[in-house]
Amino acid sequence: MGLFSRRSDDTTPGYEDNAALRGFGGYEPADAPAPSPSPEPPRAPPKRIRPAPKPLKWRRAPWLGLVLIALIAGVLNALGVGKTHHASSTPTSRPPRVETPAPRTVVPAVTSGWQSVAARDGSYAYDVPPNWEPAPTTQHGWDEPSIRLITSAFLGKDFCARDTLGGAGVTTEPLADPEAAARKAATDLATGAYGGTSQAGPGTDAQLTKADGTKAPARIVVAEVIPAATGECAAKHALVAAMAFGNGSASGVVVAYADSDRSGPTIRDDLLGILKSYRFVPAADRSTITPPPATYR
Questions:
Q1: CB 252 within 8 A of CB 172
Q2: Distance of CA 113 to the CA centre of its chain
Q3: What is the pTM of this model?
Q4: What pLDDT shows up at residue 237?
């Protein structure tokens, strides 16, 4: 139920430098002559044998490799490759983003010290205590069973860094009988929000005020809930209250719910006060405001 990383040991193969093994200066000396009974004519001086040039090895001429590296680096630098690019001391600044909220309709609260939560067009409203947070453009609810609430308000928002202590909102039920509609809404919300077991009490009478000032009958049902979840943040007990009023083949319903252990000693009265403050608002009592622009940097 959900609220919506080898070192290389290879070495270059060596070669045998015969010119450096047994002589000096790059030639091999003649062996000593064997004794002879008769003198021989003197020999010509030995010719100096210049060894064939050997392949140039990196280990024999490291300076050449260094020269080559320097030449390559010079070319790359001339092309701008490998140069260090220092960040500008003056960072590029972005202009701030300014958002202008859309105009919204507000209506005055009818409960002293409370604040109103009005529909988008201001046609209906209800009031919540000062420690509640109105969120009239927010929709919230649960999938199993499915229930969606619009024109919302919340108590203890971000409680335990992820949840709330309570909430309220408006919905409809496809039931003509107000008490049946209120009971279904209360039971569905109790199951979706808390699980566990719930016990709905008997319905009680209520009235709501229409836009023309007349009164219309309504029914209120309150359910006491023992939630299924456990843990420090889970509610031990909860209350769900719903008020429904007939509207032909369906009923309009306003619902309020809360953790009954941590929401204050007056929470039951607060929930009932929220329901009973629901009313239809005449055009004369509605006003349109445009919130100031918000700047984001």
A1: yes
A2: 36
A3: 0.67
A4: 96
